[in-house]
Amino acid sequence: MAHAVELHPVTVTVSPVRRLLQLVGGLALYGTSLAMMTRAGLGLSPWDVLHEGVTKRTGLTFGMVIGISSVAVLALWIPLRQRPGIGTVLNVLVISVTVDLVRLVLPDQHALGAQIPLLLGGVVLNGLATAAYVGARLGPGPRDGLMTGLSTRTGWSVRLVRTGIEVTVLAAGWLLGGTVGLGTVLYALAIGPLTQAFLPFVVWRYERPGS
Length: 211
Hints:
The chain is mainly α. It contains nine helices and no strands. The radius of gyration is 17 Å and the shape is globular.
């Protein structure tokens, strides 16, 4: 569930446990941010427009749909010869569970005075969460791996592949009844810069001996 961003490592690796905690915490925050944006009701990211559309058609929970779609995307990794990491597996599990738990206690909002702050908070939190789990460097999310794998196999740029995928899932989600609106546009414009701004504070690197 993440985005193509440049990694500029500025912190040092001190403990695999701390990296794992950062990964899990980032994924939990990511699930929380998705729940916030769904309850704001002002528009979602392209993939989540699809998830919401499927939720409306099937009656499954939002988290269940995220989990099922993540597994389906992972199946596409096989011909692309992409290799998952622990972060890939936890991405599926933690986000799916967290988004449903937060949605259980956070009701839908119908007044703009509540919807707009919830949307803005969700987008900013999503940027921080994305930076946190990408910065842990313990394996890409299912959709990230699909994007980079297709880019490698086709020779097309990551930007072009990402745009093609997101336009496709957005259109499919909209046809299924997913919410497209202000939040969709805001997310598209803000998530890259936000993630890049947070990354220097959370990304890990390996420190060479003597450095």
